[in-house]
Design a protein that fits this description.
Elements (H helix, E strand, L loop, with lengths): L16 H13 L4 E5 L3 H4 L11 E6 L2 E11 L4 H20 L3 E12 L1
Parallel strand pairs: 3-4
Antiparallel strand pairs: 1-3, 2-3
Length: about 120
């Protein structure tokens, strides 16, 4: 049996997609002006077991970084550009702080406004 020194071992923690989606969803919900997340189309979510936050957040890889996509409903009259920048920053910061994952892009779609 070959012995390895501690620095030769690769140790990794696997974080489930559901946990990453929950982090992103929670971060964006805390942004002032966001009223709700909008679920992905039914035919896509039907394939997902249980759904959870994966109904609202789509995750994919871009090299070693994540790409996050979600659709939002916002308060009427809010500045969408400012809100989008705040939401993107909140999601990126939460992913880095809570999961140690870098985010390449946060793609947001404004699905509607609540009056």
């Amino acid at each position: 049996m070959e012995k390895h020194s501690p620095d030769e071992k690769t140790v990794g923690i696997v974080i489930s997609e559901e946990v990453l989606a929950a982090i992103a969803a929670t971060a964006v919900r805390e942004v002032e002006g966001v009223t709700a997340l909008v679920a992905r189309p039914a035919k896509v979510t039907r394939l997902l077991r249980g759904g959870g936050n994966l109904r609202y957040v789509r995750l994919s890889q871009a090299g070693t970084e994540l790409v996050i996509e979600m659709a939002l409903r916002v308060k009427a009259g809010v500045n969408i550009t400012t809100l989008s920048c705040q939401a993107q920053s909140a999601v990126k910061k939460a992913m880095k702080d809570m999961a140690g994952r870098s985010v390449a892009r946060v793609n947001l779609r404004i699905a509607g406004a609540d009056f």
